[in-house]
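Per-record layout

source: Curtobacterium salicis
name: 16S rRNA (Guanine966-N2)-methyltransferase
length: 188
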Amino acid sequence: MTRIIAGAAGSTTLRVPKSGTRPTSDRVREALFSSLESRGLIDDTSVADLYAGTGALGLEAASRGAVEVSLVDRAAPAAAACRENAKAVQKRVPGVRIAVHAQPALGYLRTTAKTFDLVFIDPPYEVPESELTDVLDALVSRLTPEAVVVVERGTRSPEPTWPAGLTAFSKRSWGDTVAWEAVADAAG
């Protein structure tokens, strides 16, 4: 069972598509969000959850104080789950704006005018590193100064190729999951 861990929508159960997604475990989300919250990186933020799957990362941010969340996933079953999960979270957090975009992450970044303070990128493990690099390149212009980007991958994956404008500062592992954090340049 996948659920929201804490915040206003804490304990809300999230719908998971029958196949094609690998939701971030509760343990990993709890550790990530405890760290982000302790640094004041969630309240009043605009968040993007790329390769959203169930939307668990973006919706956890909404539950804990983000004001706007964009859930992006090209797979129709994942986008449908995100829509349903967003409605459940919005019932508990009525002020948050949540939008679901059923399109590839790269296409979304190339067409949106939005900027983000916090971005989660949790692609399927089989997504090639070259695609992740392209997504990170396109993301830089969509980040606010000092925005934080969290990339989650399998422990066998190499560290992402960080483009100019993003500086990696943290790597943590839990079982077969690793998360890297990077910060956007202060100049934007």
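summary: The mean pLDDT is 95. The first strand starts at residue 2 and ends at 3.
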